[in-house]
Amino acid sequence: MMKKILCLMLLAAPVFGQAVTERDFRKYFDARQVTGSFLLLDLKKNQYTAYDAARCRKGFLPASTFKIPNTLIAFETGIIRDTSYVFHWEGKKWPVEAWNRDMSLPQAIAVSCVPCFQQIARKVGAYRYQTLLGRMQYGHFQVPVDSVEWFWLQGGARISQFEQVDFLKRFYLNQLPVNTRSAQVTKALLLLGQGNGWKLRGKTGWASPTLTGAEGWGDDPNDYGWFVGWIEQGGDVYVFATQVEAKRPVPDSFGAARRAITEAILREEFGLMK
Fold it and tell me: Which residues form the active site (predicted)?
């Protein structure tokens, strides 16, 4: 019990108007050979809990967590009208074999298909992205015309865990400037699992020059991973963002670590998803 008490600390600086409870979840990251940080917002209590709150304020490339606003934008602009939309493989061989075929929108989200969402990006264009992301108050982005297919995976686009959680909170509460149908369909596409009285929605992300090439990475030796989303359980909603990093070559556990760390913390420290 004393150990639990000692690892709790209220930060003096409020974030978004609330104090943040700091807890030590390092063991979950160490077990997966990564470093990182974790943030949770209990929506009913309007209470933040963080592991390494300072890092939770740091901006990172959004990687494929950007598929959440990207899907909303695709619906809002009429590029995609419903979930029967099919992305046609353009013939380029990608390192992820699952991307090398035609697939529907739900399939593209499930396998985090980068070339599928690059097709959307070319149709949206830099100007509309800049405008719509500004309206959504999503991260800190300058969308270059010459890298509209890559800006969420390399370059200067940044979003912090606090910003991810704030965006997802507004998304869940239907407070984004998008129509109700766009929000409802996108939320349905993010369902990852459900059990006895709970539902998990979310999206992973992985930023690495192994996929994009070295341009825009400089001498950064790390890959970066995300898992963001929310849990609906017991009449409450818990919005989370986990961010991890590891030096290249990353451990084999890196891909699985994003969800595994998050779900272990949620179950063992908060009693969720049981």
Answer: 64 (acyl-ester intermediate)
Q: Which domain holds residue 22?
A: 2-219+235-270
| Exposure string for 191-203, b = 16+ CB within 10 A, e = fewer | ebeeeeebbbbbb
Q: What is the mean pLDDT of each run of 10 residues along the chain (274 residues)?
A: 34 55 98 98 97 98 98 98 97 94 98 97 97 96 90 94 98 98 98 97 93 69 97 97 97 96 98 96
Contact 118, 89 (CB under 8 A): no
Annotated catalytic, 208? no
Distance, C-alpha 116 to centroid of its chain: 18
Please, are residues 230 and 238 in contact by the beta-carbon 8 Å criterion?
A: yes
- Determine which one of 64, 147, 160, 208 is catalytic: 64
> How large is the greatest C-alpha to C-alpha distance in the chain, in angstroms?
59
